[in-house]
Amino acid sequence: MDTSSDETQTADDYDGYYDDILPVDEGRQREGIDRSIVKKIAALVGGLVVVIGICIALMYLL
């Protein structure tokens, strides 16, 4: 059984339609981390730690 002739037959029937469609992000470089968002998240977490600390301190005092 000759499988190579089946493969060439399939390849010869292919019209290349999907080769013409490129992904939207073709050729783009990978984006880095946005430092402003990281700073905002760090400030939010720091604020939460302070508030939780104040709540715990008030629980012990009252």
**General form:** rod-shaped
* Alpha-beta content class: mainly alpha
- Our Rg estimate from Cα atoms comes to 30 Å
Low-confidence runs of at least 5 consecutive residues: none
Largest sheet: none
Instruction: Tell me the span between the first and last alpha carbons.
Output: 88 Å
**SS element count, helices:** 2
Strand content: under 5%
Number of beta strands: 0
Q: Helical percent range?
A: 55-70%
Order of helices and strands: HH
How would you describe what is shown here?
With 62 residues, the chain is mostly helical. 61% of the residues lie in helices and 0% in strands. It has helices at 3-13, 35-61. The longest helix is centred in the last third of the chain and has 27 residues, at 35-61. The radius of gyration is 30 Å and the shape is rod-shaped. The mean pLDDT is 81.
